[in-house]
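Worked example 3. Consider a protein that binds PXL.
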Amino acid sequence: MPNLPVALSIAGSEATGGAGAQVDLKTFQAHGVFGAVALTCIVSFDPKANWGHRFVPVDAQVITDQLEAITAAYRTDQLNVVKLGMLGTPGTIATVATALQSRAFGHVVLDPVLICKGQEPGAALDTDTALKEQILPLATFITPNHFETLSLSGFSRIDSVADLTEAARTIHKISGAAVLAKGGVHLSGPDAVDVYVDADTTEILSAPKVGDVQVAGAGCTLAAAVAAQLALGATPLEAAKAAKTFVTAGIRGRLTSAAPFDVVSQSAGAETLN
Ligand code: PXL
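Given these inputs, the predicted complex is written out as structure tokens:
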């Protein structure tokens, strides 16, 4: 029996389980990939303050310690894929960049989380620069949403699939990574359109929109599904397509709660896997 593939998530905890490391582990598990986590921060929504984010960063040394334990336990042939979610502060970005430089991973899937739904865009400015300078060059696969695609490409607006394609190409040129840029509900029309770009391929991935309200955790789920597929040996384009199918089913089967956003169900996504 070959060993299970292992994937590493470097991400934050979102206590309700709708985003972050919790989503990464559930998504890895749904794919039959063994998950390890180095936690970067702890997010607790505040139901008394409009479900705003209470954010506590994990100490840099503790992040380094977690990564030391994980990389000592799993050698490169077993753990070849890392997925990066919310890093949250410039200090954490520097710590993670250093760790990634000292251990080779075949695939570094970057979900370039700048802000979460409901946060003010201004909160992203300092992490934005650090992420671009230190993490982007290390990524092999990037999954920016509409806002992150604007930020990483420098485009002032993205209103069409053609704009999204040009912006994805720009991010590919800057980073060298495969890019899966997500139009989501920000582009009008009946379909949720994502654009995949790598050195050889530009491909439009579309699926009918499931309503026109955003569901939380979709970005985390998509990037984690890409990471899991890569750990299972898929090509980047195959991983992008399978991850889109997984997240679309997960949105369709979403979970409703007293929180203001519905969240993706990874169990519903798992039904797309055989
Ligand atoms: O969905 C982005 C995201 C990622 N990671 C953590 C989060 C959020 C949004 O709330 O809390 C930990």
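Take a moment to read the result before moving on. The beta strands are 6-14, 34-46, 52-57, 79-84, 107-110, 141-142, 178-182, 191-197, 202-208. The pocket of PXL is lined by residues 11-14, 19-20, 43, 85-86, 113, 116, 219-220 (CB under 6 Å).
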